[in-house]
TrEMBL record, chain A:
UniProt keyword list: Cell membrane, Electron transport, Heme, Iron, Membrane, Metal-binding, Transmembrane, Transmembrane helix, Transport
UniProt-recorded Gene Ontology molecular function terms: electron transfer activity; heme binding; metal ion binding; oxidoreductase activity, acting on diphenols and related substances as donors, oxygen as acceptor
Localization terms from the record: Cell membrane
UniProt-recorded name of the protein: Cytochrome ubiquinol oxidase subunit I
Organism: endosymbiont of Escarpia spicata
Lineage: Bacteria, Pseudomonadati, Pseudomonadota, Gammaproteobacteria, sulfur-oxidizing symbionts
InterPro entries: Cyt-d_ubiquinol_oxidase_su_1 (IPR002585)
Cellular component terms (Gene Ontology): cytochrome complex; plasma membrane
Automatic annotation (TrEMBL), chain B:
Keyword tags: Heme, Iron, Metal-binding
Organism lineage string: Bacteria, Pseudomonadati, Pseudomonadota, Gammaproteobacteria, sulfur-oxidizing symbionts
UniProt keyword Transport present: no
Source superkingdom: Bacteria
Matches recorded under InterPro entries: Cyt_c-like_dom (IPR009056), Cyt_c-like_dom_sf (IPR036909)
A GO term for molecular function: heme binding
Protein name: Cytochrome C
Occurrences of domain Cytochrome c (ranges): 47-159, 189-275
Length: 635, 275
């Protein structure tokens, strides 16, 4: 009777809470979307874009905007992008770019972390509510606790970055201020909102732990994430405007409204890519915290807790990482569509070498993630069934990794060319181009998902009657997808022209996605009421924890590397095609220089993260009351 | 404490491994394009062709796409005889331009690449009617007329064809010199002629000099017939005072600070004579 009542209360609480959430979401959508439509409706884009020479929207009549000018209507002042010379850039004795590079990267690292953590914390908290398992709630709270200082550190680096930019690149910043106008104030205002939601969400955790108040708490978390996401997409618009400006004419005069300036061709691809990458990055960083705590204690209960925390973090990091290459494909496709020249500068020009480094980093992430899953199988007694697959998965990962790092073009001396029999190796040469790498990366993702799937299955035995058919279907999907990926890569990559080569990569990616989606659907149905085998948290080798340190280091380094390429594809432009960079640093630095810079920022980030964790651990530490002091010392 | 040092050591060690990988790769810097001074007195056709080849490989960024298959994203021009290829394309029914000979066709394909798109190389979804190639006289490449001529000369000469392009005139050469960015913060030298001043202040970036076609600003082919010398002077010094109907007030307002009196007067005289 009591149990029924409790369930009824819980259900009512849930439905009330869900209503709360939906209402809030509706309000956010209405208030968020309405101004955009209102803005777009202000006279129509064609009226603002038309005055530039003969430009007008194809298929529509020429708009005689000149009338308003002739009639003496007051026109806003139109300012072109400044043309700077070397003397317009203050010299502070060290490379201005290096200063901005370090500050911007540290700001972005912490920004990514504090945007990601509340996102998966909200999901974990929700899982806790849905399952009634308080461990989830406690873990979510702990994740928030360890990242709390990160918000202040993000703001400190953000402020320092802004000051450095105004000092070192005054004309450029003046132009950006002019282009984005009042949007800067909206951006600043959002920090007040975010701080309000952050502190009420964190400090109100225990005050709003049960019943309807829990749904209020979840709503605060949702609003915190809403504010954070808005901050992210606004700041992304500055970066994408610099890469592919919109809403301005050829000389940089603003001809569109703020929405047209923000919504450049690369804005949404970057938004999606950063959103997914942030989650993976955040998961990896808190995973390192759990690994450190696991290694630091001998208490079996604590080890079990931190083992579970580490597993969850790795799960978040790898799950977010799997779709990341697809978001990357979209981003690169949009870059090519915007400017083939920019795309090739990144992928086939001077920057192409860094994709070898990217391969090393992603290979490290996948090997570490897989290794952690294999080591984690020792927790469950049912994992013996799947041990033979590990060798196969490891073999595929290593072969694909080596294929991925095979360079296409080598800088060789005449004698080396003679020794090699040409500028490309006759066997390994074909592995250097994109089709081979597309095959490799898709297979790596597929076998990583296989590792994950086997791990999830290792503590379960399916009880449904159709389990053999389900398994056969799953195997068939894997086989067909792998054959399809290899066939598409080989046939269209080596026996047709470039256009088909690029097109076939979409079909390869689709095959990988089909495996992942089919695997999740089949397993969730097949193991719905499965028999559960004993599982022992904390029973994992210590060396496996180092995989959880490798993940954040590789993630951080990878983010730094991608920041270098994203910024460098603009070549010698502050704002591509609109405002030239005439500073002493207007060249693309060598990959070695970039590597040094990235390691510097990675190590600095590591130190600041340790500081953040240390501060979090202080809150749980209480000094023992000193005993009475006597003349001779402590009594 | 041991755990602390082990984890820090492992993390920094791994970061250094990644750094080492970057040190093993070829170290190449991507320099911003630098305008070179052309010594017209000693310029020969061979120098001009060599200049065209250098532009083709570097500043023009042509070889980013025009590479041999399977890595090229545009026809492999260097392995083709562009003079005979031009004749075939001019005769093609899909050709939409107005060129009559190879030199004109090559120039047209650089500044308006969609006039003829080679089958299979068009923008995705355009059915080979739109070229993905950027106009090389516009940002970000921004080749000058003389630089495009040099590339044409190179493309003609590389297969042993007769070079039909003339060596650059003194005015054009001066334009290139004047357009060179001031190195080390040194102010650019004053222009010696009106043509040089036009180049120095990049007037043609927004105004067509030889036609009335509107670009960002109105064409100036007959500006002397429309405006008096006083009005032209005012348009340069205070462009917002009177704005030509149909155009936004986009002209930079700082010419009064940048120009010397002599440059201003040369420009005013030059434009006033355009009738």
């Amino acid at each position: 009777m009591r149990s029924n009542r409790q369930q009824s209360i819980r259900r009512n609480g849930f439905s009330n809470g869900l209503g709360w959430l939906l209402s809030l979401l509706a309000v956010l959508l209405v208030f968020g979307v309405t101004p955009v439509f209102a803005d777009m409706g202000m006279g129509g884009a064609e009226q603002r874009i038309a005055p530039i020479g003969r430009v007008h929207i194809e298929g529509q009549d020429f708009v005689p905007v000149a009338d308003s000018v002739a009639s003496g209507a007051e026109e806003p002042e139109q300012i072109a992008a400044p043309r700077t010379s070397r003397k317009d850039y203050p010299n502070i004795g060290v490379s201005s770019r290096a200063v901005v590079w370090i500050l911007a990267q540290l700001h972005l690292f912490f920004g990514a972390l504090v945007l990601a953590v509340p996102l998966f914390v909200l999901v974990i908290e929700l899982v806790g509510v849905m399952t009634g398992d308080e461990r989830y709630d406690s873990m979510a709270h702990e994740f928030m606790k360890i990242s709390l200082t990160g918000f202040s550190i993000t703001a400190i680096f953000g402020g320092s970055l802004a000051l450095a930019l105004f000092l070192l690149y005054p004309d450029f910043m003046g132009y950006m201020m002019h282009v984005f106008g009042a949007q800067w104030l909206v951006y600043a205002g959002l920090f007040f909102l975010e701080s309000f939601f952050l502190y009420t969400y964190y400090y109100g955790w225990n005050a709003m732990r049960y019943g309807n108040l829990k749904w209020v708490h979840l709503s605060l978390g949702l609003l915190l994430n809403g504010a954070g996401m808005t901050i992210m997409v606004i700041s992304n618009s500055w970066a994408t405007f610099m890469m592919a400006p919109s809403g301005v004419n050829e000389v940089g005069v603003v001809v569109g409204n703020i929405w047209e300036v923000m919504k450049g061709p690369l804005w949404n691809p970057i938004n999606l890519h950063r959103f997914i990458a942030n989650i993976g990055f955040g998961g990896a960083v808190v995973g390192a915290y759990a690994a450190y705590k696991f290694l630091s204690t001998k208490d079996m209960e604590k080890r079990a807790h931190y083992d579970w925390m580490g597993y969850t973090s790795n799960f978040i990091a790898i799950l977010a990482f799997l779709p990341l290459p697809f978001a990357g494909y979209w981003l690169m496709a949009e870059i090519y569509a915007y400017s083939q020249q920019m795309g090739i500068t990144a992928m086939g020009g001077i920057l192409a070498w860094l994709f070898i480094v990217q391969a090393v980093l992603i290979g490290t992430i996948l090997l570490a993630g897989n290794y952690y899953l294999w080591a984690g199988m020792s927790r469950t007694e049912g994992s013996k069934r799947y041990k033979p697959f590990i060798g196969f998965i490891a073999f595929v990962l290593v072969v694909c990794f080596l294929t991925w790092v095979t360079p296409h073009t080598l800088i060789l001396s005449a004698s080396e060319i003679a020794q090699l029999g040409g500028s490309h190796h006759h066997i390994l040469g074909p592995l250097g181009i994109m089709p081979a790498k597309n095959i490799a990366v898709n297979l790596m993702l597929i076998v990583t998902f296989l590792s994950f799937q086997l791990y999830r299955r290792s503590d379960k035995v399916a009880t449904v009657s159709w389990a053999p058919i389900g398994n056969a279907l799953m195997v068939a999907i894997y086989v067909v997808a792998i054959v399809n990926i290899i066939f598409l890569g080989v046939y269209f990559g080596y026996f047709s022209n470039t256009v088909y080569k690029v097109g076939s990569s979409v079909a390869q990616v689709s095959s990988t996605l089909v495996v992942i989606i089919a695997g999740i659907v089949i397993d969730s149905l097949m193991f719905k009421n499965a028999k559960t085998l004993p599982s022992h948290w904390g029973r994992i080798p210590d060396r496996a924890q180092y995989a959880l340190f490798a993940l954040p280091i590789a993630f951080t380094w990878l983010m730094g590397l991608m920041g270098y390429v994203r910024s460098s594809v603009k070549t010698h432009w502050h704002v591509y095609t609109v405002m030239k960079d005439n500073s002493p640093d207007n060249f693309i630095p060598t990959i070695g220089y970039a590597g040094n810079m990235i390691t510097i920022v990675t190590v600095l980030f590591l130190l600041f993260v340790l500081f953040m964790f240390w501060v979090a651990s202080l809150s749980g530490t209480k000094q023992a009351k000193p005993e009475t002091v006597t003349e001779g010392g402590v009594a | 404490m041991t755990v602390f040092f082990k984890t820090i050591g492992f993390s920094i060690g791994l970061a250094l491994v990644f750094t080492l990988v970057t040190q093993l790769l070829p170290q190449v810097e991507g320099e911003a394009p630098v305008e070179t001074k052309v010594d017209l007195a000693s310029l020969t056709m061979d120098d001009f062709v060599a200049m065209g080849e250098d532009l083709f490989m570097n500043k023009g960024t042509c070889t980013l796409c025009h590479k041999p298959p399977p890595i090229g994203r545009a026809p492999d021009i260097q392995s083709m005889d562009m003079v005979s290829t031009s004749s075939e394309r001019l005769a093609d029914e899909r050709y939409q331009g107005e060129s009559k000979d190879a030199a004109d066709y090559i120039l047209e394909s650089m500044i308006d690449p969609s006039k003829f798109v080679v089958a299979g190389w068009g923008k995705k979804g355009s059915n080979d009617t739109v070229s993905p190639m950027p106009a090389v006289d516009k940002a970000p490449i921004q080749l000058s007329a003389m630089e495009m001529d040099a590339i044409i000369a190179y493309l003609q000469a590389k297969d042993g064809n007769e070079v039909t392009i003339s060596l650059p005139s003194p005015e054009a050469a001066a334009e290139v010199v004047a357009a060179a960015p001031a190195a080390g913060g040194v102010a650019p030298a004053p222009a010696a002629t009106a043509e040089e001043a036009l180049g120095k202040y990049a007037c043609s970036a927004c105004h067509a000099m030889d036609s009335e076609d509107p670009l960002v600003g109105p064409g100036l082919a007959t500006v002397g017939a429309r405006l008096s010398e006083t009005e032209i002077r005012q348009s340069i010094v205070d462009p917002a005072a009177v704005i030509t109907e149909g155009f936004p007030p986009a002209m930079p307002a700082d010419f009064a600070e940048k120009m010397t009196v002599r440059e201003l007067e040369m420009l005013v005289q030059h434009l006033a004579e355009k009738k």
